[in-house]
Amino acid sequence: MHGIRFLVGLLLAGLLYAGEDGKTEADPSKVPPPAKKALNKVFEGRIIKIKKKRVTIYYDFEDQAQLKDFEDARPPRLLDASQTRAYIQGGRLVLEGSSSIRHKMEGRGELRANFYVRVGKQWNVGTVFTEPVMSDYFVVLNLFDGRFYESGMMLLAACGLKEDEGADIDPELVNWRDIVGANLRKKVRVGQDAEIEVYKDGWTEYVRVNDQDWKGSSRGKCKEMDAYQFGFFVHESRATFDDLTITFELTDEFLDLNDLKAVVEVEWEEIPMTGPLAGVEGVPPRVRTQVEEYAEGKGDGRAVILALLNTGLPKRAREVFAKVLAERRDPKMVPPLIDGLYAEDKLSRKLTIGVIKSIVGKTFGYSPTGGDKARSKAIQKLNAHLAENRGRYFG
Questions:
Q1: CATH T-level fold of 60-243
Q2: What is the pLDDT of residues 159-210, one digit of tens each?
Q3: Where along the chain do the CATH 2.60.120.560 domains lie?
Q4: How far is CA 106 from CA 248, 258, 280, in A?
Q5: Residue 288: helix, strand or coil by DSSP?
């Protein structure tokens, strides 16, 4: 995967902070530091969190300028591919043909990205991690892989090369590994949004598709990347992406290149001051909007349930999600809440049964700390109750 590194300069156009002036009585720690203004000169996305070298950026893809934060990452064998396009349209990032782009941010340590994807074809759609120098080493998380389409398999971590070089020219030389038995054709349907979360931390790769997740490891399949970049790809396919939140620890090289090293040693986060999530940190803008809309009697409660069960979000935020669901008391939310009763983490189970009790009026003997057998028996009673009252919960 040889290529030419795109050296990134300062962008003249950025999103300037339009917050309070120096007379504000807000907590000084919440006032955007000079680092935010400096980062806004480098990135067209919305800076929502800074924790020293670790930066979180959000993209709603409503502004054409946001495409400037991405660069072409196609391997040489696809540079002449026809009908290859990457553009923003209708508030979404669109990839067509055999296209691959990556975010220009270079980082190390844990990378985390959340986004929505809507596939136009269930064929070769996914994310990619590459070294900044576009070397032969890369990691692919392929939601739909052509080689394993019939069996419904997903490539969780298809990594690196064999001893030979040349995977940029011959895909047969790619060291395809870590095949995961996940029939995503049923979970990621054509024309419908699917919520995706991915992260890479050292040798570990992780992906969550809606409410189901998998882990893999690239150890032994390629060399360890000292730094990497994150991107999307399609091959002979089409997909659109929206509401991207990406977090990286910026490399010293990237900080030096963009004159940021002297200003990023701060901690700051964009925090809402009104609404159900007032003062709550660590909530991505898209999740915040979903929760606020549902609290106002609009939107889809299933999105709030997904946020409630997302163990990557802060405990305080998840408690707010449970409170919003409990206050709405929508019986139609009980069936999708049942997944939370099977969750591995105790907090998810505790919050879920609390919401169910507020809607149904009882717990059916379910205890978040009970054993698997006891919890299963309680869930059977709950399911029997739902079956007896189908009109209320499914009508």
A1: Jelly Rolls (2.60.120)
A2: 555 444 554 555 565 555 555 656 777 778 888 998 899 988 887 888 888 8
A3: 60-243
A4: 8, 11, 28
A5: helix
